[in-house]
Amino acid sequence: MDVKKDSFQAWLLAARPKTLSGAAVPVMIGVALAWVDAHQFYVPGTFSWVAAVLCLLFAFIMQIDANFINDFVDYARGTDDRATRLGPERACTQGWVSINRMKHAIALTTCLACLVGLPLVWFGGWDMVLIGILCVAFCFLYTTHLSYMGLGDVLVLVFFGLVPVCITYYVQLHTVTLQVVVASLACGLVIDTLLLVNNFRDRDTDRTAGKRTLVVRIGASAGLWLYLGVGVAACLLGLVFGLNGHWMAFVLPLLYLLLHYITFLKMKRTWQGRELNAVLGLTARNMFVYGLLVAVGLLL
Asked: Which positions ≥6 away from 172 have C-beta within 8 Å?
């Protein structure tokens, strides 16, 4: 790909816009849960669209920040090799973005995320500062240390499930229900499918680089079936919606389960190589479909 160094196209590719669905889905579900409960159990008018937008913007910027950090650290460590890389091309490795400018971009997006998230103190109290600090800290720790220890899947459950869904709900209603917690775990499992595809594709290069991801630890076959299993588990957890009177939020995501199974079969047939990038794209699509179906099901 012919990309001019430090151009707008280069930065757009570095930001990895396709990954932003992973940031949008938890907030989407949290907003839908808060909207429904605000109108069913609380005084109408307690829901704030300003708080909802701030949560979404914070999630987007933190996702871009994480992408920049990943791009920079993997290049600096030499683990992002142009010759052996199977995944989508990375900005620093390809020379699209200079290493110094990437450092500045990381500082900028980190500060911008903090500025966008700070007003959430007005809606959720000073605890939001601690949540923001943890998000920033683990954004760095994931790429630099924790992903090499096989803890990436745990962090996805926490920071793409529990934290964004529960906090998005909390800043609206100042409480968190069991339904919200279970929904956040289901959301985290769905988003973890994206990480599992990545790690399944990169299992050989990760093993060589000493990156002990969950797929490297349990093996390719188990990793393949885990991919299918977490999607099924997420849909089963959706029973909590039905038990709370929102049966459509359980029924509609069964369409996601069909798409997930079809993608699993493609992943099984493909097995290895750059062709798995197509499975990555399908998984990102499925993930967004899940979030949309849950949100629509809650609002119906």
From this structure: 31, 34, 38, 46, 47, 48, 51, 52, 123
